[in-house]
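lol ok so funny story. i was supposed to be doing the assay writeup but got distracted and ended up predicting the structure for this chain instead. priorities right. anyway since i did it might as well share w the group, maybe its usefull for someone
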Amino acid sequence: MHQLITNLKLFWQGAALSYVALFSWLRPTTFLASMIIFPLGQILFFTLLGIFATGRDSASFYLIGNAMQITASAGIFGVTMAIGGERWAGTLMYLFGAPANRLTIFAGRATIHIFNGVVQVLMGLAWGLVLGWVSFAHTDPLALGITILIATFSTAALGLLLGCLGLVTLNIMFINNLVYFLLLLFSGANLPITALPQWMQYISWSLPLTRGIAAARFIVDGASLAEVAPLLVGEFFIGVGYLVAGYVLFRIFEIEAKRRGTLEAF
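and the output, tada:
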């Protein structure tokens, strides 16, 4: 019981401190830019571009897709920086030298970014409501909330997998940006999956967010939770797959980083 309480304290304290540190110790300008300005900028750009290309009737398609895709910001960049940030600060070697359970530490840091991602998606959808580009008159709030949570979990799992690369390379931000922008294409946020070549569709359905975005669009159009359940189950297990792969690679790369002496490179 004592060990459980200790792990829980480590889980929440480490999560809170890493979150505050990510925003330069929670400077309001950095935080507001990430939570408000960035979602609005992405939504305005792609939705207006989509309206120009295909007409105003498509506004909801682009808005929902990009609002859901914004969760990749927290899931990929946030979770990855839970590892990469330690390395850049020169503290990763001390973290690995501590007797604390690594799974507890990084699970806590990932969890807080899941909640952060949910808030960002809600902010994006709220902008859509304010701008009049989407209506939630036929939307089941519970089903939409579950969809957002599962989609954010799956992207956080992908972030853990990418974070492992931070142990063996100094170019993790390049990889993060590349994956983030590839998700804009492959996840169906801005193009129907059926419009992609067959080989790209195979990639799309193996990535987080693809099923989550599709489920969100169906729910906003009036679908029930039961009707989108197959999509959500698939999204959840995609996330579990990335989570397991990320943790296994994390332990492998930790050993390799120690062998190569790259923990101190930052």
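Residues 177 and 254 are 23 Å apart (CA to CA). The radius of gyration is 19 Å.
back to the writeup now i swear
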